[in-house]
Amino acid sequence: MSSVDALNEAPSGHPPFAFELVAYEDRVSSVDGKNVMECHAPLCEVLDDMQAAPDALRANYWGPSRVVRAVIDSSIGGQDRVRIVNEAAETAIDFYAGSDGASNKLSALRVNLESKGILDTIVNQRYDAVTAQSTSNGRSSSNADRLNEMLDEPMLMVPLCHGGLVPGLQTFLYHGRHRQDSALYPVRFSRAKHHDRRPFLVDEELDHLRDLSQDRTVVVYDDDSYTGETVGRMVSFFKDTLGKRKGKYIGMVSMDRRMRWSEARVRQGEHWQRSGSRLDKMISHLPS
């Protein structure tokens, strides 16, 4: 068994989520010379593909996250943005979980997206080996276990889009097996791919996050880290903008690639949490 296969094994003792039934190789396979992770298509085609396939997640593992990507990258503002981001995220969660009502939710979401005039929005996604590896079931399960050990209150999971979305959703689902009162809201802060200097948020979203963060630990989640700066900035941002509150702020990634003795690692502070040590030993053996 390869290290990737070992990391992708589904934890025993529970009915599998839909994402656990999609082999790692199928998440990064190539069709007609194109990696399935790559996309350059209008949102309407992404939705068509998801609605046409009986097993949408197996046919296109990245489809639900692309819908969230299109919504977050759109110019929709105000309370409409909060509502549709929540609707897109909840639909994605249902698809990755394998919930019976996922297809109906997608149909309702499509109507709302059409009313906002964004079905022709081009969805761009490139193949990213690190993001793909970060979706391993083992890493998501390990981080959920770590959160369950650390937290004495529900969490507000904030996946950083777009790389942190899928591993964040998976970790959120594993965590949900232990408590049902946590919440999730994805936020775009992509310093490398979108050159964001600050989180891509409107005022209404900040108000929504303030409400969600009451009596919840804020968990900023990304796919990987090399310097720790992106997650560190987001933790600091939320500490400054969400106001004084009872609770904690945690930064977490699926793949921690920072040098162990780097200055950046020291600066990151106590809020940083890594995957378990048994996974650390495997990371160096994963394909690039």
Protein model, in words:
The structure is a single chain. The chain is of the alpha/beta class and 288 residues long. The protein has two domains: 39-125, Zinc Finger, Delta Prime, domain 3; 129-283, Rossmann fold (3-Layer(aba) Sandwich), CATH 3.40.50. It contains 14 helices and ten strands. It has helices at residues 3-8, 24-27, 43-52, 56-59, 63-73, 78-97, 102-115, 129-134, 137-150, 165-176, 203-213, 229-241, 263-268, 277-283; strands spanning 30-31, 34-35, 39-42, 122-125, 155-161, 183-184, 187-188, 217-225, 249-256, 272-273. Strands 5, 6, 7, 8, 9 and 10 form a six-stranded parallel beta sheet that branches. A two-stranded antiparallel sheet has the order 1-2. β1 (30-31) and β2 form a beta hairpin. The longest helix is centred in the N-terminal third of the chain and has 20 residues, at 78-97. The chain is globular and about 50 Å long. The relative contact order is 0.13. The model is unreliable at 1-7 and 259-288 (pLDDT under 50).
At a glance:
With 288 residues, the chain is of the alpha/beta class.
List the helices and strands and how they pair.
Layout: H1 3-8, H2 24-27, E1 30-31, E2 34-35, E3 39-42, H3 43-52, H4 56-59, H5 63-73, H6 78-97, H7 102-115, E4 122-125, H8 129-134, H9 137-150, E5 155-161, H10 165-176, E6 183-184, E7 187-188, H11 203-213, E8 217-225, H12 229-241, E9 249-256, H13 263-268, E10 272-273, H14 277-283
Parallel strand pairs: 5-6, 5-7, 5-8, 8-9, 9-10
Antiparallel strand pairs: 1-2, 3-4
